[in-house]
Amino acid sequence: MTVDLGMPATPPPVLAERRKTRQLMVGSVGVGSEFPVSVQSMTTTVTADINATLQQIAELTASGCDIVRVACPSQDDADALAAIARKSQIPVIADIHFQPKYVFAAIEAGCAAVRVNPGNIKKFDDKVREIAQAARDHGTPIRIGVNAGSLDPRLLAKYGKPTPEALVESALWEASLFAEHDFHDIKISVKHHDPVVMVRAYEMLAEQCDYPLHLGVTEAGPAFQGTIKSSVAFGALLAKGIGDTIRVSLSAPPVEEVKVGIQILQSLNLRPRKLEIVSCPSCGRAQVDVYKLAEEVTAGLEGMEIPLRVAVMGCVVNGPGEAREADLGVASGNGKGQIFVKGQVVKTVPESKIVETLIEEAMRIAEEMTESGELAAGVGQPVVTVS
Ligand code: SF4
Question: Which atom of ligand 1 is found nearest the CA of 283?
């Protein structure tokens, strides 16, 4: 049976137009209002261990990471940058603190961009002319990465603590030094661990410049807390069109950061949704184990690249409605599951067969979409709902 996916060709709505910015290229990835919001992460390996670092970059690439940052705290790390930048499949940004000489090493090594932290590089301002010259010669953008934990001591003395005003003043001061040398290939971040301070700082920065902004809640914490803090803060900013690239900082493997970042963008329709499980929270009316069902369906469809909404619902109260709205769904009850495909009941199966039937149907839809060329055209937002 051929399934009419009935997908709209128009893009899904977003909450706000992107703030207009300058555009720049981080290797092959465009950053700015004319390009999609990109997702970044950072390796946790010793950069000088080239194989381990490239292995982690490969994992990040497979998880959907657009740009990766590597730390460069020693000469051995600086020496490894050329090989890493050459072999990585995604653009590599070198992250430099303390030693200006590594900024030049990273540019020479062919890194796609360099992140500098003016608060942590002694006499940084004296080096701006040379850095701008080297970066211009190599076409390397610079991220001015201001961080509450390492604010320029002059501004810390002036404001007493890393307020939004202090973070913004630091960033704009450094950007102005580059601008004096006619260098504008800059993106800026003003990170703070407190989402309220961070959001305010980015709002102020967005009003005062047109550089692309890299969003981050720094030291956001372990996975659960960090995910919530980053989601809330990024959501508040992205909902106003502020933010051109994001990094979710978690005390967790970097692949987890990428997954969260992608989910945030998908939730705001800033990136096409792929697999979306719509499952109910369950309640006293549930006639199946919704948690188990949702988990099994999620695990069975993990890695599916097609945009598909799957509804997994626990009873007949909202089940048929949600299942009908999804690309694929099940409304459960009385030990059975009614399987919906694009609003139509295609079969009723015993509870024990619900998961395998949903997975089979999802695979069939994926195959049909691939054959019809719908995926290549980038059209379609299938949805699976579990109730
Ligand atoms: S769909 Fe049914 S089981 Fe699930 S939360 Fe709603 S009423 Fe409860």
Answer: 8
Cβ–Cβ < 8 Å for 62, 88: no
Q: Is 56 helix (H, G, I), strand (E, B) or coil?
A: helix
203 labelled binding-site residue: no
Question: Hey, what domains does the chain have and what are their CATH numbers?
Answer: 23-268 (3.20.20.20), 275-372 (3.30.413.10)
Measuring CA to CA, which residue among 229, 285, 294 is closest to residue 257?
229
CA 381 to ligand 1 center in whole angstroms: 24
- Supply the mean pLDDT for the chain: 88
pLDDT tens-place string over residues 144-193: 999 888 888 888 899 999 999 999 999 999 899 999 999 999 999 999 99
Both tokens of residue 332?
């459960």
* 67: nearest Cα among 19, 16, 130, 25: 25
Q: Which of 323, 342, 339, 345 minimizes the C-alpha distance to 382? A: 342
| Calpha distance 155→245 (Å, rounded) | 26
DSSP for 306-317 reads: S-EEEEEESSTT
Name the residue of 278, 279, 289, 315 whose CB sits within 8 Å of the most ligand 1 atoms, as the mutation to test its pocket. 315
For residue 186, CA distances in Å to 78, 116, 135, 141, 318 come to: 22, 11, 10, 6, 50
* 278-330 pLDDT tens trace: 888 888 888 888 889 899 998 988 878 788 889 988 887 777 787 788 889 98
> Which protein residue's CA is at the shortest distance from atom 6 of ligand 1?
318
Residues 270 and 11: their CA atoms lie apart, in Å, by: 10
Alpha-carbon gap, residue 323 to 345, rounded angstroms: 9
Q: Sign of dihedral through CA atoms 43, 58, 53, 31?
A: negative
Contact yes or no for 385/325 (Cβ under 8 A): yes
- Say whether 283 counts as a known binding-site residue: yes
The alpha helices in the chain, defined as continuous H runs, are 50-63, 75-87, 100-108, 124-138, 153-159, 164-180, 195-208, 223-238, 254-267, 290-301, 319-325, 354-372
- Reported as type and span, the H/E element at residue 116 is strand 113-121
DSSP 3-state of 305: coil
CB atoms within 10 A of CB 58: 14
